[in-house]
Design brief:
Distance between the termini: 34 Å
Helix content: under 10%
Shape: elongated
Oligomer: single chain
InterPro entries: 5peptide_repeat (IPR001646)
Number of helices: 1
Length: 221
């Protein structure tokens, strides 16, 4: 797909670089509120583990299962998550800075009230991505299939969603600056007032025209 033409919309500034000098570690030794740095966790099953408040700095997660793991309030800094799996990911109020998330397979991903800065989500499939009331700064989501993307109440600046297929996009009470949706497909858009400050392409505008007309009471004959 062609790259979107430049506009006045500022693109995300991503500063992630792959962690260096990581050492293999036993993920089963992780505990709540741990401070972990420079570790790699591979093929680990962390189902039902309590990792709330844990900080991961310059770490790698490779093919890790996070089913019902409690990540509430966890912090991820300069960290890579590749091919993670979770029917339910519980990470409300978590913090993500300089993070790459590659090809996740998540059912319901609860990242509400989170803080995401310089985060790149690439590929994968997510049934429900709950970012309600999160702060999103310098976030790129691309080449991803998302059943429902809940951006209700978010504060978003320099966010791009590219080449994604999204069933329902909810922007209810969202505050958007430099948010670029060009090149993605949406079946349903809720919270049309949240589109203020969002950049779309001509095809997307044509798709949105009927619902926008209905929203403002415009009669088309």
């Amino acid at each position: 797909m062609a790259k979107p033409r430049p506009t006045g919309t500022q693109p995300p500034k991503l500063t992630f670089s792959a962690p260096g000098h990581v050492a293999d570690a036993d993920a089963l030794e992780l505990r709540p509120s741990d401070q972990r740095e420079g570790e790699r966790y591979s093929d680990a099953d962390l189902t039902d583990y309590d990792l709330s408040g844990t900080t991961f700095m310059e770490c790698e997660f490779d093919s890790v299962t996070l089913t019902e793991a409690q990540l509430r309030g966890a912090r991820f800094v300069d960290t890579l998550l590749a091919a993670s799996f979770a029917p339910t990911l519980r990470a409300g109020r978590s913090s993500w800075r300089d993070v790459m998330i590659q090809s996740p397979r998540w059912g319901s991903a609860e990242l509400f009230d989170g803080d995401l800065n310089s985060v790149h989500l690439r590929g994968g499939k997510i049934d429900y991505l709950n970012l309600r009331s999160a702060r999103l700064t310098n976030v790129l989501i691309e080449d991803c299939q998302i059943g429902e993307l809940d951006l209700g109440g978010v504060r978003a600046d320099r966010v791009a969603i590219r080449n994604c297929r999204i069933g329902t996009l909810d922007l209810t009470r969202a505050t958007c600056v430099n948010v670029d949706l060009r090149g993605s497909e949406f079946s349903v858009v809720n919270g049309l007032e949240g589109l203020r400050g969002v950049t779309v392409d001509g095809d997307q505008l044509a798709e949105l025209a009927p619902v926008l007309a209905a929203h403002i009471g415009l009669v088309v004959e």
